[in-house]
C-alpha cells in the first residue's frame, strides 16, 4: 500500500504494470504524452484513491485504469 502523493519507482513492477495498462486507455498516447512518472493520490472525484500521471511542468492528471482494463477485456492482446 502506498501513501497519498507517493511516487511509484520506475524500476518497480507496479510502475511497469500501470504503464503497460495505460497503453490500452482509449486516449493512451495522448494522455501519457510528456509523462515522467506515476503516483498514488486521492481522487478529485470522491473519496477514492487513484493513480496520477506526473508530467513535466504540468498539473498531475488522474487516469482511469478501469477504462484500460475494459479495453483489454474487449480486445485481449494475447488471445
Considering the chains and any ligands shown, give keywords for the structure.
three-stranded antiparallel sheet, 3 helices, about 30% helix
Low-confidence stretches: none
Number of helix segments? 3
- The 3D shape can be described as globular
| Portion in strands | 15-25%
Largest sheet: 3 strands, antiparallel
Evaluate the radius of gyration.
13 Å
Q: Helix amount, in percent?
A: 25-40%
Question: Could you tell me the mean pLDDT?
Answer: 90
What is the subunit arrangement here? single chain
Order of SSEs: HHEEEH
Distance between the termini: 31 Å
The total of beta strands comes to 3
Largest sheet, order of strands side by side? 1-2-3
Alpha-beta classification: alpha+beta
Please sum up the structure shown.
It is built from 3 helices and 3 strands; from the N terminus they run H-H-E-E-E-H.
Summarize the structure in words.
The protein has 79 residues and is of the alpha+beta class. The protein is 32% helix and 23% strand. The chain has helices at residues 13-22, 28-32, 65-74; strands at 35-42, 49-55, 61-63. The chain is globular, with a radius of gyration of 13 Å.
Could you outline the blueprint of secondary structure elements for this entry?
Blueprint: H1 13-22, H2 28-32, E1 35-42, E2 49-55, E3 61-63, H3 65-74
Antiparallel strand pairs: 1-2, 2-3
Amino acid at each position: 500500500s502506498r501513501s497519498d502523493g507517493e511516487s511509484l519507482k520506475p524500476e518497480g513492477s507496479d510502475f511497469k504494470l500501470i504503464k503497460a495498462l495505460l497503453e490500452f486507455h482509449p486516449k493512451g498516447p495522448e494522455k501519457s504524452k510528456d509523462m515522467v512518472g506515476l503516483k498514488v493520490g486521492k481522487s478529485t472525484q470522491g473519496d477514492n484513491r487513484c493513480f496520477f500521471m506526473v508530467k513535466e511542468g504540468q498539473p498531475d492528471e488522474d487516469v482511469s485504469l478501469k477504462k484500460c482494463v475494459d479495453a483489454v477485456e474487449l480486445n485481449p492482446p494475447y488471445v
